[in-house]
Amino acid sequence: METLRFTYEGGRPAPGRAPEISGVLGSGNLEVLVEPAESSGTLHIEVTTAAVGFGRIWQAVLDDFFARWPLANVRISINDAGATPAVVSLRLDQALEAYTTGGTPS
């Protein structure tokens, strides 16, 4: 197992108030927890993954995510079981849509 931590600055506070979880922890998939945080305008992301040695790929995927969702005062926790970058992006989008709208994404 490997734990990776990423911090982004310069985002906007997200409208979500209650924690939201998306996805399932299973082979080739992941779960994403999004929750409000008192973080002085930053977005913190922690990734726990079974696939060791893919830090650069995680960095690229999360950089792209932050370009699409420039959030602040949010913490995201990811439990990964070997998901591909496309699945990671999909689950992050689902989790943020639910978090910002207050319900399950359509």
TrEMBL record:
Pfam families: ACP. The keyword Repeat does not apply. GO terms for cellular component: cytoplasm. It comes from Melittangium boletus DSM 14713. This is Malonate decarboxylase acyl carrier protein. Its main location: cytoplasm. The modification O-(phosphoribosyl dephospho-coenzyme A)serine is found at S27. Keywords: Cytoplasm, Phosphoprotein.
